[in-house]
């Protein structure tokens, strides 16, 4: 899905949290959003994912304004996922059920993703009994199972053990490469951005300072601020 942002502003009680003149996400992209704490990464991803309204500005999706139909084609996964109070299996089946898939299709799709994400053994477990990392895996499985056209991830692998990170990154890469799902991912790990993202945007104080191919932004940034950040010298201010 192509997403175009123009003059997006978000103000929280007179505090300007976001000011983006123009930014576009091309269909099939895999963007990483990096920047210090409080830079506005979550706010921007929630606004693009329509979980929050911008104070001003416009976002178009494939050249059109947002419609409720689009809600079925995109999804946002948070670090602390909201799961339904039921089993893992039911949580993953849910997005397919509300989209009208048949019983057989649902069974096949859920079984496939349970297997690929290595969470088959916990499929009958109730969501509130899961560990934090297991819940994050289930949330990603639930987002991927219906093949959204736009997937927004806000630190999906924070607090995850290295083996599970590898599985989750494999699934995100595969979703992007094989299912052509457009991905926007907030991450605090520059290593993860290097491994996974084709392009990276660096945010600071509500603005996108610099955006472009991952290699360029992380190794040859043009802004002194980006350079400081990627070298680990930018303090929260
Ligand atoms: N609901 C809110 N009310 C008031 N201020 C808010 C609200 N949500 C976010 N902010 C402020 O907006 C700014 C941007 O926050 P945001 O969560 O987008 O940053 P972030 O880059 O995702 O940070 P982090 O890396 O710490 O998660 C911060 O200064 C934050 O305190």
Automatic annotation (TrEMBL):
<dbReference type="InterPro" id="IPR003439">
    <property type="entry name" value="ABC_transporter-like_ATP-bd"/>
</dbReference>
<dbReference type="InterPro" id="IPR027417">
    <property type="entry name" value="P-loop_NTPase"/>
</dbReference>
<keyword id="KW-1003">Cell membrane</keyword>
<keyword id="KW-0547">Nucleotide-binding</keyword>
<keyword id="KW-0472">Membrane</keyword>
<dbReference type="InterPro" id="IPR050086">
    <property type="entry name" value="MetN_ABC_transporter-like"/>
</dbReference>
<dbReference type="GO" id="GO:0016887">
    <property type="term" value="F:ATP hydrolysis activity"/>
</dbReference>
<dbReference type="Pfam" id="PF00005">
    <property type="entry name" value="ABC_tran"/>
</dbReference>
<protein>
    <submittedName>
        <fullName>Carbohydrate ABC transporter ATP-binding protein, CUT1 family</fullName>
    </submittedName>
</protein>
<keyword id="KW-0067">ATP-binding</keyword>
<dbReference type="InterPro" id="IPR017871">
    <property type="entry name" value="ABC_transporter-like_CS"/>
</dbReference>
<dbReference type="GO" id="GO:0005524">
    <property type="term" value="F:ATP binding"/>
</dbReference>
<keyword id="KW-0029">Amino-acid transport</keyword>
<keyword id="KW-0813">Transport</keyword>
<dbReference type="InterPro" id="IPR003593">
    <property type="entry name" value="AAA+_ATPase"/>
</dbReference>
<feature type="domain" description="ABC transporter">
    <location>
        <begin position="3"/>
        <end position="230"/>
    </location>
</feature>
<dbReference type="GO" id="GO:0006865">
    <property type="term" value="P:amino acid transport"/>
</dbReference>
<keyword id="KW-1278">Translocase</keyword>
């Amino acid at each position: 899905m192509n997403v175009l942002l123009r003059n997006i502003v978000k103000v929280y009680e007179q505090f300007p949290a976001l000011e983006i003149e123009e930014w576009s996400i091309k269909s099939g992209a895999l963007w990483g959003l990096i920047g210090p704490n409080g830079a506005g990464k979550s706010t921007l991803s929630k606004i693009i994912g329509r979980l929050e309204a911008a104070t001003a500005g416009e976002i178009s999706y494939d050249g059109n304004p947002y419609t409720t139909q689009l809600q079925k084609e995109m999804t946002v996964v948070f670090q602390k996922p909201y799961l339904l109070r039921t089993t893992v299996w039911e949580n993953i089946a849910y997005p397919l059920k509300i989209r009208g898939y048949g019983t057989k299709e649902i069974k096949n799709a859920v079984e496939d993703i349970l297997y690929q994400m290595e969470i088959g053994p916990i499929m009958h477990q109730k969501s509130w009994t899961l560990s934090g990392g297991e819940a994050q895996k289930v949330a990603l499985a639930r987002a991927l199972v219906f093949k959204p056209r736009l997937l927004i991830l806000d630190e999906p692998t924070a607090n995850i053990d290295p083996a599970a990170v590898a599985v989750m990154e494999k699934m995100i890469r595969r979703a992007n490469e094989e299912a052509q799902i457009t991905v926007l991912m907030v991450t605090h790990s520059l290593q993860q951005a290097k491994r996974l993202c084709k392009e990276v945007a660096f945010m600071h104080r509500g603005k996108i300072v610099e955006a472009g191919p991952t290699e360029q932004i992380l190794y040859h940034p043009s802004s002194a601020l980006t350079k400081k950040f990627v070298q680990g010298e930018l303090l929260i201010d």
